[in-house]
Amino acid sequence: MEQTPSRRTFLSVAAAGAGGLLLTGAGATPAGALTPSRALAADPFTLGIASGDPSADGVVLWTRLALDPLGPNGRGGMPSRDVDVRWQLATDERFSRVVRGGTESARWRRAHSVHVEVDGLEPGREYFYRFRAGGRLSPTGRTRTAPAVPSPRPSVSPSSASSVAPAALASASLTFAVAACAHYEHGFYTAYRRLAEQEPDLVLHLGDYMYEYGPRGYTALGGSVRQHTPGPCVTLADYRLRHAQYKSDADLQEAHAVAPWLVSFDDHEIENNWAADVSSSGAPAFARRRANAFQAYYENMPLRRTSVPGGAAMRVHRRVDWGPLARFHLLDTRQFRDDQACEDGLRSGCDDRLASGRTLLGRDQRDWLLDGLATSGARWNLVGQQILMAQRDVKVGPGTEVNMDSWDGYAAERTRLLTGFQRSGAANPVVLTGDAHMHHAADLKLDFDDPDSPRVAVELVASSIASDGDGYRDEGRIAETIAENPHISYLDQRRGYIVCRVTAEELDADFRVLEHISRKGAPAKTGARLTIPAGQASLT
Ligand SMILES: [Fe+2]
């Protein structure tokens, strides 16, 4: 089913090719006319389009103009001047009912990126958008607003306030995809294309969207299928060029065009295993490098103004409410963390990792998260973050060996956080994770070594889109890992993504897998489907 081009894929291509024919009706809306601006020599929409961070009344529309994505100095072959970009948002794919439109300046100082924050829209509905610049029309993107969060009626008794939600909840559903880790050299982005074909309402990308290494700086077992731009990324020009290379990929463009995304970075958007102001490579002037990486990240992602970086600081932890059904809490597990314990890596017998004062989130973000859980009236509380939260002992047999870069390296804070989950009273917490390059499903417990310790939440970890190349399924290794870590119930080393369907009653997670990515065209299939019934913080 997923192997045939979807309706969306077809229409997106058709819109790009049909040009001005699809402007019919646009002129009827005062703000909506896409009149030609100063001509450009070629198509400036080579990096695609995107939308993100939906609210109940709006969404961010993004594009970045580049005539030549791999042109010198990360400038995308663009002139050193600002360029007007017209945009339209309509309720139909043919743009016969344009409801918003306007002009934004694609500033050359921001790599000719455009972030339009549209507001005043209807909650819980689909919209279509497109841009025009230099006489060229962009492909059409599909996006949507979040459903409204019902405001409680003035209550005369405690029970009347809660009577609003059930009606809105009963019919609510949401399908979202979870993706992470897309090393460009390691394989083709077939997984992004398969994800797009499933037409989710929303896509969560949990980091390692791009990798900073130079060509062959990090090689997969099976070798490389394509090559990074010169690197490693250090300067603003390096990061801009690398993002442009990634964004040029047609499969990635399809995934952006199909739904709004919620993105947050992990390490490789900046540097491998960085921690706050500490560079893992000890390179000098890391603050400057981090500022460069943040600026390029903002320029290339559909983020709101609240995420505009101020030098080496950038806010990506944020909440997105999806009606009464779900609240997304997106975390930043890099910018505020203590340095990795015991010189990082896989370690046995590292007492420092257990130190009670160590933090991964930083106090402010931890308080913000616990507050967001305590005040959430949503049926599901979906915590999007980067690194494996469940304990994972990689040493078979006696003894323990764990990864200092993941939550195992910050064990006391994990316990505090999971205790906070419990005390917050937030309904149905589910942690969504990237980074591990393997699918995982796990129960999160206050004490992973105690079989009787209560489960507090469920963790679903998305494998990589491309990182580490063609995956595999090593049944022996899977059995060993699960025996060593009985709170982990599912593992798969193949490439893929997760598709979650959420209703008031349950969350179904389809772990999608592809047999290969070193050649194009692999189908995606469901490696496992796991169901979390509402009210039970465990998997069935
Ligand atoms: Fe990764």
Features:
six-stranded mixed beta sheet, 24% strand, binds fe (ii) ion, 10 helices, globular, single chain, disordered N terminus, alpha+beta, 540 residues
Describe the overall structure.
The chain is α+β, with helices and mostly antiparallel strands and 540 residues long. The chain has 10 helices and 23 strands. It is globular, with a radius of gyration of 23 Å. The site of fe (ii) ion has 6 residues, from loops. Residues 181, 208, 268, 435, 437, 467 line the site of fe (ii) ion.
- Ranges with pLDDT <50 over ≥5 residues? 1-32, 157-164
Name every ligand kind in the structure: fe (ii) ion
The fraction of residues in strands falls at 15-25%
From the spread of the alpha carbons, the general shape counts as globular
Distance between the termini: 26 Å
Secondary structure: number of strands: 23
Decide which structural class fits the backbone: alpha+beta
Report Rg.
23 Å
Strand order of the largest sheet: 12-13-15-17-19-18-20
Bin the helical content: 10-25%
Estimate the mean pLDDT confidence.
91
Q: Main sheet, how many strands, which sense, barrel?
A: 7 strands, mixed
How many helices? The count is 10
